[in-house]
Design goal:
single chain, five-stranded parallel beta sheet, alpha/beta, 2 domains, Zinc Finger, Delta Prime, domain 3, Rossmann fold, binds zinc ion, 7% strand, 54% helix, 5 strands
Length: 340
C-alpha cells in the first residue's frame, strides 16, 4: 500500500511524502493525534516507502518482498513495540537498543515503531531518551501516541511531530467501504448495509476503531438504546437509573461508554447554547440531535456538573472501584439533581 492511500490525513501524508522524496527523514518522528485515525498505518506505510525494492513514483509498490513483509510485520529490519499490561518496560527498551545495535539486514534502516509511546514507564522512558540522544545513523524511530503530552519533555524535544486529525464521517465511510471490498471472507467484511455504514461513521466520532465497532449492527442498536435511556433519565425514576447502571456495567467496552456519554453531553451543551449540531462535524455523534436538545433542558450548569462527575468517574475506573456502584451513583445523581 502506498503512502497516497493514507486517507483523511492529507497534511501528515504530504509531509511524509516530502521526507521520502527529499531523502530527508528525521531519525525520530512522533505521530500524534487521536486513537484510530491512521497513525499505525502511516508508520507502516512510511516504512514501506523507505524500504520498497521497486518504488513507483517515489512511493511504495505494495507488492515487493519488503512491502509484503512490512505489511505482515515480518520485516527483519522493523521492530514493533507495544505496551504489555498497560506499560512499556525497560526490558522492551533494552530490546530496542539491542535491535538497533546491528546494521540493517536487507534495507538501509533499522526501523523501530513504538505504539502508545506515552505508556513508557519512567525507567524505560529515561533509557529510551539516552538512545534517542545518540542514535546509530541507520536507526529510525517512530513514536505513536494519542496522549503525547504525557511523554518526557526531553523525549518530545527530540522528535519531529506529525499531527494526525480526527477523520470526517465521509472519509470513515469510504474506508469502511474499501475494507469491505478488500476483505477475503464475508465474515471479515462485516457485510454491513450502506445505512449501517453511514450510521457507524457518524457514531464513531472520527475513529476507525469505533467505526468498525458500530459497523456491527447489534453494537449500534445497543448504543442507540443506551443514549436513548440516558437522555430520558432526568424525567425518570431511581429504578430507571439503576437499570441503566446495570446495562452499563454489563457492557464490556467501557471506553466506549465514556466516549458516548462525553460526546452526548458535549452535544447537549451545544444545544443549550442554541447551536445546532453539525451532522458533518467529526466529533458530534449527531444521530441523537433530538435527545441532546431534550437533555439541554437541564440547563448549562447542571450539564457541566454532570460532565465533571463523568470525568471523575472515568479517572477513578483505573483505580480499584466497584464500577457498578460507581455508575449507580452517577446515574441516580442525575435524577436527584433534577428534583432539586
Ligand atoms: Zn515495494
Amino acid at each position: 500500500m502506498p503512502l497516497s492511500d493514507l486517507l483523511g490525513q492529507d497534511q501528515a501524508r504530504d509531509r511524509l511524502f516530502d521526507m521520502v522524496n527529499c531523502a530527508r527523514v528525521p531519525q525520530t518522528l512522533l505521530f500524534a493525534g487521536p486513537q484510530g485515525v491512521g497513525k499505525n498505518l502511516a508508520a507502516k506505510l512510511l516504512a514501506q516507502a523507505l524500504s520498497c525494492r521497486e518504488p513507483v513514483n517515489g512511493d511504495a509498490c505494495g507488492r515487493c518482498p519488503a512491502c509484503i513483509q512490512i505489511q505482515r510485520q515480518l520485516y527483519p529490519d522493523m521492530l514493533l513495540i507495544a505496551a504489555e499490561n498497560q506499560q512499556i518496560k525497560i526490558n522492551q527498551v533494552t530490546e530496542i537498543q539491542d535491535f538497533i545495535s546491528y546494521s540493517p539486514l536487507v534495507g538501509e534502516r533499522r526501523i523501530v515503531i513504538i505504539e502508545d509511546a506515552h505508556k513508557l514507564n519512567e525507567t524505560a522512558a529515561n533509557a529510551l531518551l539516552k538512545t534517542l540522544e545518540e542514535p546509530p545513523p541507520a536507526a529510525l524511530f517512530m513514536l505513536l501516541s494519542h496522549r503525547h503530552h504525557l511523554l518526557l519533555a526531553t523525549i518530545l524535544s527530540r522528535c519531529l511531530r506529525l499531527q494526525f486529525v480526527t477523520l470526517a464521517p465521509a472519509i470513515i465511510e469510504e474506508i469502511l467501504k474499501l475494507q469491505e471490498a478488500e476483505a477475503e471472507t464475508e465474515e471479515e467484511a462485516g457485510m454491513s448495509s450502506a445505512e449501517v455504514r453511514a450510521a457507524a461513521a457518524v457514531w464513531s466520532g472520527g475513529s476507525m476503531g469505533r467505526a468498525r465497532f458500530f459497523q456491527v449492527e447489534e453494537n449500534l442498536v445497543w448504543a442507540r438504546e443506551f443514549i436513548g435511556k440516558f437522555s430520558r433519565l432526568p424525567r425518570l425514576t431511581i429504578l430507571a437509573a439503576l437499570d441503566l447502571a446495570e446495562m452499563t456495567a454489563q457492557f464490556e467496552e467501557r471506553e466506549l461508554v465514556f466516549f458516548l456519554l462525553r460526546s452526548f453531553l458535549h452535544d447537549a451543551l451545544l444545544a443549550d447554547r442554541g447551536l445546532t449540531i453539525d451532522r458533518g462535524a467529526a466529533v458530534s455523534a449527531a444521530g441523537w440531535s433530538a435527545e441532546a436538545a431534550a437533555f439541554a433542558g437541564l440547563g448549562e450548569s447542571r450539564i457541566l456538573a454532570i460532565r465533571q462527575r463523568l470525568l471523575a468517574l472515568e479517572r477513578a475506573q483505573g483505580i480499584n472501584v466497584n464500577i457498578k456502584l460507581a455508575f449507580d451513583a452517577f446515574f441516580t445523581g442525575i435524577i436527584f439533581g433534577s428534583a432539586e
